[in-house]
Amino acid sequence: MNKSMALIKNKKILLGVTGSIAAYKSAYLVRMLVKAGAEVKVLMTPSAEGFITPLTLATLSKNPVLSTFTKQENGEWNNHVELGLWADLLLIAPLSANTLAKCAHGFCDNLLMATYLSARCPVAFAPAMDLDMYAHPSTQENLKKLKAFGHHIIEPGEGELASGLEGKGRMAEPEDILEEIEILLSNTQALKQKKVLITAGPTQEAIDPVRFISNHSSGKMGYELARVCRNAGAEVHLVSGPVNLRVPKGVHFYGVHAADEMYAKAQAIFSGADVTIFVAAVADYAPKSVSETKIKKKDDELSITLRKNPDIASALGKVKKDGQITVGFALETDNAEMHARKKIESKNLDMIVLNTLQDSGAGFRYDTNKVAIISKVGEKVNFPLKAKSEVAEDIVNAIVKLMDQKV
Ligand code: C5P
User: Element (H or E) spanning 360, and its range?
Assistant: First the structure.
């Protein structure tokens, strides 16, 4: 579960579930939304109940599932207008071809439709249908209509469909839906029209065709920064060493291995970047020569001669122009602050984020981090241990503040 769901926390989300086999994914979607801190109410169309039980969705959402205008037992009615006003977001996932057509034409024959027509909040749809149904001109026209209404369509994926056919039509995965909602709900545009370059992850320096030198960097901090910058409206370019993370949606991604490769990619993007954040744990040294064949086990000792890698932050700091902001990271084990301040000078940074390995829960691999942000003018702000997603927000806020001071 991705922890960068700050935007979803405390949001009121109405989830409409319609009659599609992809309704089984709604259970996981509800669980993820609730875990991210949202208050979720589920609305089902009558045919959705044939695919997943209200009991499942009521249990996971911690709220009764609504599907009819009135409660048969006591005649009480479910007020669609109130529901529509309650929600911060109406998400219809899965969206069947039938409900799509109804939304496009304003039909109002069930509680979900009445709520859709009453809702004032943003509306997002995650279509799910067989490839031919999806490709049908009628479906495509209806989708165009929803877009023209200002609604957000979460594109279906391609792959094997429940029918056994292969093609476009499978509902986006819950993780992707969550990320799209996050973008939709983000209301800060503090980095609009800004280009942000981020280096992230470790580098891998080849010894021979099967071995390399690397480090424990997980890339989490860099990927969270990419996500937060994207949410703030930036055009994000993420140059990353090999990590085991999902690339945030909407981010320009460049996968690299060695420091030389990372440097070349970053250098190509740098001159156009308004902000560059060097988060990558770049290997300081790489084998001087890479063996073309696998090194054989022979003597008791083996020496590998290393050569210095380019310092990407320093090198780009030298060609940095007025108005460009660069931010570095420092992971120190001793005299942390003094070393961090020196790095601001040597790498020509505007700001450095200091994290130590001494604090439990901070640093490599963890989802949390404890940092201090030191600026070029010498200010130091200490932050408590937080989720890396929140640390990323603190860093981006500090960058935005700095940009405001520069104008
Ligand atoms: O000198 P040190 O490795 O401690 O500096 C850390 C900072 O410099 C980080 O921001 C890191 O991304 C960047 N760096 C770099 N290229 C290197 C080494 C570090 O960009 N070869």
Answer: none
Q: Which domains does the chain have, with CATH numbers?
A: 12-185 (3.40.50.1950), 195-284+300-406 (3.40.50.10300)
Q: What would the two tokens of residue 334 be? A: 């001793």
Count of other CB atoms within 10 angstroms of residue 367: 16
Phi and psi at residue 76, in whole multiples of 5°? -65, 145
Residue among 238, 272, 249, 276 at smallest CA distance from 399? 276
Question: What is the pTM (predicted TM-score) of this model?
Answer: 0.82
**pLDDT, averaged in runs of 10, over the chain (407 residues):** 64 97 96 96 96 96 91 75 91 98 96 94 95 95 94 92 86 94 84 96 97 95 95 96 95 98 98 98 97 94 96 98 96 86 96 82 76 92 90 94 84
Nearest residue to 356 via CA among 364, 346, 365: 364
Q: Please tell me the distance between residue 364's alpha carbon and the centre of ligand 1 in angstroms.
A: 15
Residue pair 88/9 in contact (Cβ under 8 Å)? The answer is no
| Size of the chain in residues | 407
Cα 25 to Cα 44: distance, rounded to the nearest angstrom: 14
Burial degree of 341 (CB within 10 A; 0-12, 13-18, 19+): middle
Q: Which residues are catalytic?
A: 215
The rounded distance, in Å, linking the Cα atoms of 144 and 193 is: 27
Report whether 38 contacts 10 (CB < 8 A).
yes
Query: Is the minimum distance from the CB of 239 to ligand 1 under 6 angstroms?
Result: no
The pick from 205, 238, 282 for probing ligand 1's pocket by mutation, whose C-beta has the most ligand atoms within 8 angstroms, reads: 282
- Among 271, 289, 405, which residue's Cα sits nearest to residue 351? 405
Identify the three-state secondary structure at position 240: strand
